[in-house]
Amino acid sequence: MKLKTTSEYALRILSHMSLHEEDQHTAKGLSETLNIPYKYLTRIMTNLGKAGFISSTRGKNGGFIFAKPVEEITLYDILEVMNDLNDDVCIMGEGLCGQGEHCALHECWSKPKQLIDEMFKNSTLKDLHKKH
Fold this sequence. Notes:
By secondary structure, this protein is mainly alpha-helical. The chain has a single domain, classed as Arc Repressor Mutant, subunit A, CATH 1.10.10.10. 45% of the residues lie in helices and 6% in strands. It is built from five helices and two strands, in the order αααββαα. It has a two-stranded antiparallel sheet with strand order 1-2. A hairpin with a 5-residue loop joins strand 1 and strand 2. The radius of gyration is 17 Å and the shape is elongated. 19% of the residues are buried. The model has no long low-confidence stretch (mean pLDDT 86).
């Protein structure tokens, strides 16, 4: 399973922000720290803001902060906002799987896919930083 670049960036951004939850983060600072192109990052931040995960303030002292507690933001929620949870995409790259004929791996992939979805649903941003 491969996440879209946009989803990977969104997870990296929010994970980084959650490490420094009390701080206000600028787009420029996040772009430089995480090595994400500035324009790409700002589009992602817009989507994360619309989803209610973060809020922003403009101006000289502006930036981004969390709009809701990090323990309430699941990885599944983030991937859903980034449109990266298409259950019908074939793991073998044969387009959509599940409508009509199935690929050779469809049944074998079904259970691991469910387990991955459950892991995303049960993991929050806060969980990413727990020591094991």
